Amino acid sequence: MDITLSIIKADTGGFVGHTAVHPEMMAAARSEITKAIAEGLLIDGNVAACGDDISLIMTHQREPENAAIHSFAWNVFRETTVIAKRLGLYGAGQDLLSDAFSGNLRGMGPGYAELSFTERPSEPVICFLADKTEPGAWNLPLYKMFADPFNTAGLVIDAKMHAGFRFEVYDLYEEKRIWFDCPKDLYEMLMFIGAPARYVIHRVESPTLGEPAAATSTQRLSLIAGKYVGKDDPVMIVRAQSGLPAVGEVLEPFAFPHTVAGCMRGSHHAPLTPVSLAQAHPSRFDGPPRVVALGFQLHEGKLIGPRDLFDDVAFDGARTTAGEVMDYLRRHGPFEPHRLALEDLEYTTMHELERRLADRWESMGEPVRAQKGIAS
Ligand SMILES: [Mg+2]
Predict the structure, then answer these.
(1) Domain-located, residue 13
(2) Cα 154 to middle of ligand 1, angstroms
(3) How far, in Å, is the centroid of ligand 1 from the Cα of 84?
(4) What mean pLDDT is predicted for residues 45-52?
(5) pTM of the complete model
(6) Whether residue 228 lies in the annotated active site
(7) Residues whose Cβ atom is located within 5 A of ion ligand 1
(8) CATH number assigned to the domain comprising residue 95
(9) Average pLDDT over the chain, rounded to whole?
């Protein structure tokens, strides 16, 4: 059967500060999902939280960016905002950037990853939810899953994977996109996706199977709103097995807690820490950034699961490394590279500082290189 898996997420208020979602908000979202299943809008649904973000994980038979599905999610988030306001939770409704819903959620604040496909007889899917980081955080793990034979043995062992995978990459600054065919375009692609603040993998497809394999949320709230309103806290869907990476190959990249942008005030580099749902509450320096992996077997559109896949001692090493990296980076305090480079800072007093100090800066004359006629 043809199915669409949608994860739609938003931060509609934190409990306490930016660390978690209040249980009343989770209960309200779950009750709306139950109603939507009963009414036939959804085949199935699940509600999960990573940090202060609520994720609605839904299956249905409408296309991605469908108005009915997106407006349903919007209304759920309005309802959880009402609860957050009543309880005085932090940043109530912060991801709802508009007063009125129109058509779909693009540019309105909530993030979403959606994938339409024909369900296979056995359909393992993994929903990744992250908090305190940005969509480019998925670049490195997606590269490893679908393009690195040192991570994914199937690229060598499974003939169905020998043709490689196609990656769709967005330029978030210029609103452009490009397809890279890997392994042919591997080195060119790395030049771009190694700069994850700007270039983000949006989709991965298998040319051999003619099937979509992965989708990420790519909304950058800061660019949408023209000001900082919260790190984008991305989500991602990855299908596994039978010509796609195995479940263990999909999870393996997270054994390395790579450094991402986000953490405190969305303005610091810190390690992306793989955790169980019970540990998905970033309370040290609003970090370190967290990722949870919820595994489902999709069957006739039903979400069988989830299995909390990082709830495994095999990821303890990654968590220990992340703790050590966090200690090391924290000792830099307000210095780069712990603090983001100026152009990537989200919360910033720099513009105001420049104005305030403008008349205290004294000119030291023309730059020396200009005086000597050296081209810059
Ligand atoms: Mg968040």
Answers:
(1) yes
(2) 34
(3) 14
(4) 98
(5) 0.95
(6) yes
(7) 11, 51-53, 131, 233
(8) 3.30.70
(9) 93
**What is the model's pLDDT at position 262?**
94
Distances (CA, A) of 35 to 28, 70, 96, 226: 11, 15, 22, 36
174 and 277 both lie in a single domain: yes
Which pLDDT belongs to residue 230? 47
11 belongs to the catalytic site? yes
- Total domain count for the chain? 2
- Chain segment 347-375, per-residue pLDDT in tens: 567 778 888 999 999 999 888 777 777 77
Residue 141 is classified by DSSP as H
Q: Is residue 372 part of a domain?
A: no
Q: Which of 9, 11, 143, 233 is catalytic?
A: 11
Residue among 9, 95, 231, 233 flagged as catalytic: 231
For residues 165 and 247, membership in a common domain is answered with: yes
Phi, psi (degrees; rounded to nearest 5) at 136:
-65, -10
Q: Give distance in angstroms: CA of 105 to centre of ligand 1.
A: 18
- The active-site residue, picked from 35, 171, 181, 228, is 228
| Confidence band, pLDDT 50/70/90 cuts, at residue 108 | confident
Q: Are residues 146 and 266 in the same domain?
A: yes
Distance 209 CA to ligand 1 centre (A): 35
Residue 52 Cα to ligand 1 middle (Å)? 5
Ligand 1 centroid, distance to 87 Cα (angstroms): 18
Helix count and strand count (H, E) for the chain: 10, 15
Residues 199 and 169 in one domain: yes
Residue 257 alpha carbon to ligand 1 centre in Å: 18
Give the integer Cα–Cα distance in Å for 16 and 139: 30
Asked whether residue 328 is domain-assigned, the answer is: yes
| Tens-place pLDDT, residues 196-252 | 988 999 999 999 999 999 999 986 655 555 554 545 899 999 999 999 999 999 999
Domain range for 21 is 1-117
The predicted-structure confidence for 296-307, as pLDDT tens digits, reads as follows 999 999 999 999
Burial, 99: exposed, middle or buried (Cβ in 10 Å; 0-12, 13-18, 19+)?
A: exposed
Distance between Cα 286 and ligand 1 center (Å): 10
In this structure, are residues 189 and 165 in contact, taking their beta carbons and an 8 Å threshold?
A: no
In this structure, what are the phi and psi dihedrals at residue 231, rounded to the nearest 5 degrees?
A: -65, 150
CB 119 within 8 A of CB 1: yes
121-141 as b/e, with b when 16 or more CB fall inside 10 Å?
eebbbbbbbbbbbbbbbbbbb
